[in-house]
Amino acid sequence: MKLSKSISLFFVLLSSSLLSSCVSGGLKVINSLAKSKEFESHQNLPYADKAHNNLNLFIPKNQNIKATIIFFYGGCWGNCSTLNKDHYLFVVDTLVQQGYAVVVPDYRKFPDVLFTEIIEDAKLATQWTIQNLKRYDITNENIFLMGHSAGAHMAAMLVADENFLGKDLNKISGFIGLAGPYDFYPFTDQYMYKLFSPENDYFNSLPINFINGNEPPHLLLQGKKDKRVFIHNAVNLAEKLKLNGVDHQLVLYEKMSHTRILLSLSKVFKNRSNVINDITQFIKKHSL
Question: Are 70 and 22 contacting, i.e. CB atoms less than 8 angstroms apart?
Answer without folding.
Answer: no
